[in-house]
Design a protein that fits this description.
Elements: H1 12-27, H2 32-38, H3 43-55, E1 59-61, E2 67-69, H4 71-82, H5 86-101, E3 104-111, E4 114-121, E5 137-138, H6 144-150, H7 155-162, H8 178-191, E6 194-197, E7 205-212, E8 218-226, H9 231-251
Antiparallel strand pairs: 1-2, 3-4, 3-8, 4-5, 6-7, 7-8
Helix pairs in contact: 1-3, 2-3, 5-9
GO molecular function, one term: DNA binding
Domain HTH iclR-type: 11-71
Protein name: DNA-binding transcriptional regulator KdgR
C-alpha cells in the first residue's frame, strides 16, 4: 500500500525573516512602523525578528531609528551571483526560446557603440542572416537587441551618443532621425520589448528584450529572429521573450525597483 506523500512545511519565523530582508532591500531604510505596515506580522514578533537579524549582522539600526541592509547581506548576494555560471544560464534561455518559437535566439551586448552578437542558437545555415552570426557587429539604432539596450538610457544620453553611431539607411525602413528613434524607444519602455521590422536587413524581423544583472544595469539583450512577423507572431513571441528575460534577469540578481 502506497504511503501518502506529505508536504514539508516551512518554518514561519524564517519565512518572515526573509520577508523582512526582501522588503527592506526593495524599499531602502525603514522604521519598525513602516515595516509593520508592509508586512502582516504582529509588532512583538516583528521586533524580535528584526532584533535577531541585527544581532546576526544582516541589518543595522541607524540613528533615525530606521533599519537598512548591511554589507553582510550584500556579501551573501554577491557571492551567490559570482557563483552563477552566467554563460550557461544565457545559453539555456536561448535554447528554450529557440525551441519554443522555432526561430533563431541570440544574445548580444553593447560594445564600443555597436551591438556585438556573442551567442546564437537555432540556425545552422549561414545564409540565414549575417546579423545572427556570433561575432557579428550591428548598429544599435536599427536592431531589436540594440534598441532594447538603448531603452535603458535617458533621452539625453541617447542624443549625446547619436553622432557616434555613424547612422545610415541600411534598408528603406531604417530609422535615421534621432527624434523618431526616441519615439520608438519610448514605446519600447512601455511594452518592454523592441522590434526590428527589416530595419537592419531585408526579410529579417526581430523581437528583442533587455537582460539586467545584479548591479541593476544592462547585461545585454536577447532577440528572436525570423523571416516573418505577423501581429499574432509578435504577440506570442514577445510574451514568451519578455517572460524569459525577466526570469533570467532575476536569476542574475536583478531587483526591479
Amino acid at each position: 500500500m502506497s504511503k501518502a506523500i506529505q508536504k514539508m512545511e516551512t518554518i514561519q519565523a524564517i519565512d518572515r525573516a526573509f520577508q523582512i530582508l526582501e522588503t527592506i532591500s526593495r524599499t531602502g531604510n525603514m522604521t519598525l512602523a513602516e515595516l509593520h505596515d508592509k508586512i502582516n506580522i504582529s509588532k512583538a514578533s516583528l521586533s524580535r525578528l528584526v532584533y535577531t537579524l541585527v544581532e546576526n549582522g544582516y541589518i543595522e539600526k541607524r540613528n533615525n531609528n530606521e533599519y537598512s541592509l548591511t554589507l553582510k547581506a550584500y556579501e551573501v548576494g554577491i557571492n551567490a551571483v559570482q557563483n552563477l555560471d552566467q554563460i550557461s544560464l544565457i545559453n539555456s534561455t536561448l535554447a528554450d526560446l529557440s525551441r519554443e518559437t522555432g526561430r533563431v535566439a541570440q544574445f548580444s551586448i553593447e560594445d564600443n557603440n555597436q551591438l556585438l552578437c556573442v551567442q546564437s542558437i537555432g540556425q545552422t545555415a549561414p545564409s540565414f542572416s549575417v546579423y545572427t552570426n556570433v561575432g557579428r557587429r550591428s548598429p544599435l539604432y536599427c536592431t531589436s537587441a540594440g534598441k532594447a539596450i538603448l531603452s535603458a538610457y535617458s533621452n539625453n544620453e541617447i542624443i549625446e551618443r547619436w553622432e557616434k553611431f555613424d547612422v545610415k539607411p541600411l534598408t528603406e525602413h531604417t530609422i535615421t532621425d534621432v527624434h523618431a528613434l526616441l519615439q520608438d524607444i519610448s514605446e519600447i519602455k512601455q511594452r518592454h520589448y523592441a522590434l526590428d521590422r527589416e530595419e537592419n536587413e531585408y526579410n529579417i524581423f526581430c523581437v528583442g528584450a533587455l537582460v539586467m544583472n545584479y548591479t541593476n544595469t544592462p547585461l545585454g539583450a536577447i532577440s528572436i529572429s525570423g523571416n516573418t512577423l505577423t501581429g499574432e507572431e509578435e504577440r506570442t513571441i514577445s510574451e514568451t521573450l519578455v517572460a524569459a528575460v525577466k526570469r533570467l534577469s532575476a536569476t542574475l540578481g536583478y531587483v526591479m525597483r
